[in-house]
Amino acid sequence: MTGGSRGIGAATALRLAQEGADVAVGYVNGKEAAEEVVRAVEALGRRSVALRADSADASEAAGVVAAAAEALGGLDILVNNAGVGLLGPLETLSLTDVDRVLAVNVRAVFLASQAAAALMTEGGRIITLGSCMAQRVPGPGGALYAMSKAALAGLTKALARELGERGITANLVLPGPIDTDMNPADGPYASGQAAMTALGRFGTAGEVASMVAYLAGATYVTGAEFAVDGGHAA
Ligand SMILES: NC(=O)c1ccc[n+]([C@@H]2O[C@H](COP(=O)([O-])OP(=O)(O)OC[C@H]3O[C@@H](n4cnc5c(N)ncnc54)[C@H](OP(=O)(O)O)[C@@H]3O)[C@@H](O)[C@H]2O)c1
């Protein structure tokens, strides 16, 4: 699982461990947080390891998948969760910003999925975290982030078609506003985001983790997108 040290990733690591998975916890800067998640997974009776890899680096993005399989003795589920949420007016987004967001949010997902497909056997699962902003951009400032997350829809469908004959599924989860470091429920734009949902509130990381856990067990679901957005797209 990439980005397992905090937020949606940490909640998903724990939820998958509760369901019986051993979990490799990816991180880039949050070593202590990742190690805390490892200890929590181990406390649930599962094996776990923290693996540092910068998704912005192509070789690390692919290499961490092989390292996870090596550490845990195989790979059944890849959760592409690491992401950066860079929002801002069009004229402020630099070429460096464009390259970094596409490298982390898109290229790393492609490379990790490619590496995972080479290692997985029948029943493998590729689950990717996209965003509700790929479907509906509620205001200005989302050009780069929405573009990056929209690319994952095409990738997920193509992976489903290509890997289906090997019994490997690929699905995309589209969170709405979820209370994490990336998007705190008490942040400056939080009330507007909550108001955009039908339920009128932020979601929790655990509510997204529940969907990932469902997809980890789903045998006849592939190439599909699942909004966990409180009705943001309704
Ligand atoms: N929160 C929301 O409202 C929301 C809504 C829609 C979609 N999403 C998506 O859901 C996913 C998780 O979001 P979140 O809110 O849980 O984010 P978060 O709290 O900011 O956590 C991000 C995670 O990704 C890791 N990460 C960031 N950059 C990385 C890099 N270059 N290489 C490797 N790992 C990296 C972080 O590791 P470190 O701890 O080491 O920094 C951390 O574990 C993202 O893909 C995000 O776009 C979130």
Describe how the helices and strands are arranged.
Layout: H1 7-18, E1 23-27, H2 31-43, E2 48-52, H3 58-72, E3 77-80, H4 95-119, E4 125-129, H5 143-163, E5 169-175, H6 190-196, H7 205-217, E6 225-228
Parallel strand pairs: 1-2, 3-4, 4-5, 5-6
The protein binds NADP nicotinamide-adenine-dinucleotide phosphate.
Family: Belongs to the short-chain dehydrogenases/reductases (SDR) family.
Keywords: Oxidoreductase
Protein name: NAD(P)-dependent dehydrogenase (Short-subunit alcohol dehydrogenase family)
- What integer is the average pLDDT? 98
Distance between the termini: 30 Å
Q: Widest sheet: strand order?
A: 3-4-5-6
Bound molecules: NADP nicotinamide-adenine-dinucleotide phosphate
State the secondary-structure class: alpha/beta
SSE succession: HEHEHEHEHEHHE
Please name the CATH architecture of the domain at 70-228: 3-Layer(aba) Sandwich
What CATH calls the topology of the domain at 70-228 is Rossmann fold
* Gyration radius over CA: 17 Å
Query: What sort of overall outline do the alpha carbons produce when their principal axes are compared?
Result: globular
Largest sheet: 4 strands, parallel
Number of separate strands: 6
Identify the CATH homologous superfamily of the domain at 70-228.
NAD(P)-binding Rossmann-like Domain
State the helix count. Answer: 7
Kindly provide the name of the CATH class of the domain at 70-228.
Alpha Beta
- The fraction of residues in strands falls at 5-15%
